């Protein structure tokens, strides 16, 4: 049942395959338009939305500027409240910590709260390799897991599936891993939810260990926060004896009061709700109530690398709302899998190269997976200037190839264009010789352009040549 | 500034800007030293290659009261990217020249509405028209409803709303080549929305976007012409061609 993003082709190749899937395009177009509509409506209700965005960005920036101190404070407050804090440099270390806790308690299954970070580190696969089953309890994650599929959206991982497909997955797969779906299951949303509910209830009541992430971690109080819509998270956070929370270090918020703008920005941007149905907060161990052993794994996995990037560090403000995905025209056409990561869409196009570093062909293709239309920046509740970071990362990709023995054709073309564009007379000569506009196009592969689009006929005389001939007199 | 795309492929747009601005009493010049704003290099990640291009740009336009360009994209590049290129060059003289010139660089509709203070430019264009607000005009520059106000004041025009107008057409410079399939998928949807309006003419403030959408419309023989905003605004009863 495990799939992985490892070995995904670069974005243009993966995108081409996705574009050929008309069902996928239909599902995505419909779903993103629905979420967009809801978001627009509830955002428009807030009079000072722009001020709220600025406040949210300021909180995250303050947290990131003093990250070292806030993390130490978080560790102290968590420890004071009876939690065990672990530090993990990368995925391997983090997975090892979780596996060790599971082994110590001799559990062969854990229930999971929907968490992006545990997907980022491949925790389910690491647990599976040790003979421990990890059950996703979020409805959409369950669909993805049962379908042996990969998530394609941050908030709605099964967004690429329609109701009929979900019904088929439930009917054919649920019985093999737990309580089966009713044989007469319809594709009515309520019926599908009821089947999932019955299937999951069994797992909640049986599991002795749960794994979660956290939307925020408050340093001063040692409090982790999860916001969710279904209540499955609350079940995982309260029923089992042992709780392990894996938290990216960028999730820190210095004070409890600073949660305020973030908890107002997130649901409206994310699910298009005024407030999310469930907000759970937990701090360490409370004797006799909830998990009696609480572990918190603070994970780096490339975050300090991103933090060191002056332009790119703003991406660590991300609160994983997925608003940028829902407004992105590229994402809407190709879906999430083409990005080759659990973080798809515009934020994935910058976050992956920032976390992993540039240099790999798949990662290097991501900053180019955008038309730079700017819709993502407009929608981002914490004002991450995604187009700015995309352009910055493109320059890092280009700079990484500056010492290549054989330069790419694109680099040669850019160098020659740079020479031509650095002077009007040079450009004038180039236009006379080659009709530059079309000529440059040809060098970048006009065949790929004209396969689907007509090119305009180049005029007999450029504007420059006309001006020179007539001195700008329109009657000549 | 006449952008490199306009210069080489759409000289009529440049001529329309000249005609329009002169009609409004502006003294127009075209410094022959100008070339490109450098956006193709910056947006593809070739910052070193953009440095001499930006240097040429600020040199060519030094000493003018205003630089007017019929492109939201190029105006956006001048205002938002030239500073970045100057920092890359670590050249304080260039940085100073950029800081001096950027605020005096305007997209056409901004110049008409904000600097000249006109919305009725005395144009006549008796056609059914729909308007696509290009992404960089809309979001990078924030030109808002200025182009629309200019179009609404045109005599004889029938302006129809474009569904999903704010969505990108998929051009995106080198994106149209590097991710050609996705670009065409986006452009095809845009072309479909344009056809649905029943308009005779699609108008926008950027010829590069129009080249992409127009190329798809023409391939599908949609019978919709594309025209730059400047050409519509330059058109008068006496001279319906608008350009030269």
Report on the structure:
The complex is a heterodimer of chains A (about 475) and B (about 240). Chain A is α/β, with parallel strands linked by helices and about 475 residues long. Chain A contains 24 helices and 10 strands. Chain A has helices at about 10-20, 20-45, 50-65, 65-80, 90-105, 115-120, 125-130, 140-145, 165-175, 190-205, 230-240, 260-270, 305, 325, 330-335, 345-355, 360-365, 375-380, 385-400, 410-420, 425-435, 435-445, 445-450, 465-470; strands at about 85-90, 110, 135, 210, 215-220, 225-230, 240-250, 250-255, 280, 295-300. In chain A, a hairpin with a 4-residue loop joins strand 5 and strand 6. The longest helix of chain A is centred in the first third of the chain and has 23 residues, at about 20-45. The mean pLDDT of chain A is about 95. Chain B is α/β, with parallel strands linked by helices and about 240 residues long. Chain B folds into 2 domains: about 5-115; about 130-235, Rossmann fold. Chain B has 13 helices and 6 strands. In chain B, strands 4-3-5-6 form a 4-stranded parallel sheet, with helices on both faces. Chain B has a two-stranded parallel sheet with strand order 1-2. In chain B, strand 5, helix 12 (about 205-220) and strand 6 (about 225-230) form a beta-alpha-beta unit. Chain B is globular and about 50 Å long. The mean pLDDT of chain B is about 95.
